[in-house]
Amino acid sequence: MRRILVTGAAGQIGSELTLALRDRYGESNVLATDINPKPDPDLLESGPYEVVSILDPDSLAHVSYRYNIDVIYHLAAILSATAEGNPDFAWNVNINGLKNVLDIARQKSMDRVLVPSSIAVFGPSTPKHNAPQDTVLRPGTMYGVTKAAGELLCDYYWKKYGLDVRGIRYPGLISWKTEPGGGTTDYAVAIYYAAVRGETFKCFVSPDTTLPMMYMPDAIDAMLQLADAKPDGLRYRNAYNVAAFSFSAKELEESIRKEIPGLEVVYEPDYHQEIADSWPATIDDTAAREDWQWKPEYDIDAMSRDMISNLRIKLGL
């Protein structure tokens, strides 16, 4: 049975991936870690939880040996908009923190490490439509720089040390479980909260801004599928493009309005717009579909129905 450590377990991906891993491998076999001392009760009540910073390699090593960890899902990171406000801190967390994780995994001869990357590795010189698996990576944000460098660092640990590191270039992720957390695509989460609460939503990107997106259940499935894939069939270990759908902010508004006709949206683009404009509108994920049979389940309207239903329960509305 695998013994798994999740960093950033209280974050957007971690809060749901940790529970999925506990369902699959047993609650006691999945250690959730984060710097948040008061995470969602689901994390505390469903299995072990430790307050650990990835910038503290001694603490990271301590819990890895104490719990006999053999797989790490490394999710802790500073996201795009937040990283622009504090690029030095973003570099420290996203690069030095990653290296700490890779070092302990190598020292302990762990089976594998899963590290999500992002479409933020692309930049203005990347093709805007159907961004290829192999393409120009010249990001214009610190978050993108750290993710591109992280892909290369993971490749290095595979080639140099034989550490089985795998990763996905996630598009924008949408989830009802956690509040927006400082990402440029988080407008696509915040709009649902405003809709369910009956509030006017101020959107920080223009109505025609189109980006690749994915609903969280599909994002969790993608990570688990990649983790299970046979290593011999993986051509792109640390940088698989994955896609579900692309939509403009206006198209998302229209999808939500099918469920909540009274939704009002005001478009007030700010500094997020420049970040969004540097990313492709669609990406080509043929390699993931061929190498480990990736296929999403949700379209935009199915996502909207599920988001709204769950948020109404969560918010008591």
What this model shows, in words?
The chain has 317 residues and is of the alpha/beta class. It folds into two domains: 195 residues, NAD(P)-binding Rossmann-like Domain (Rossmann fold, 3-Layer(aba) Sandwich); 94 residues, UDP-galactose 4-epimerase, domain 1 (Alpha-Beta Complex). It contains twelve helices and 14 strands. α2 links the parallel β2 and β3.
Distance between the termini: 41 Å
Low-confidence stretches: none
Strand content: 5-15%
CATH architecture of the largest domain: 3-Layer(aba) Sandwich
Number of helices: 12
Regarding CATH, which class of the largest domain? Alpha Beta
CATH topology of the largest domain: Rossmann fold
- In the CATH hierarchy, what is the superfamily of the largest domain? NAD(P)-binding Rossmann-like Domain
DSSP strand count: 14
Helix fraction, binned, reads 40-55%
Rg estimate, integer Å = 19 Å
Structural class: alpha/beta
Oligomeric state of this protein: single chain
The figure for the number of domains is: 2
The SSE order reads EHEHEHEHHEEHEEEHEEHEEHEHHH
* Strand arrangement across the biggest beta sheet: 3-2-1-4-5-7
Largest sheet descriptor: 6 strands, parallel
| Global morphology | globular
The averaged pLDDT comes out at: 95
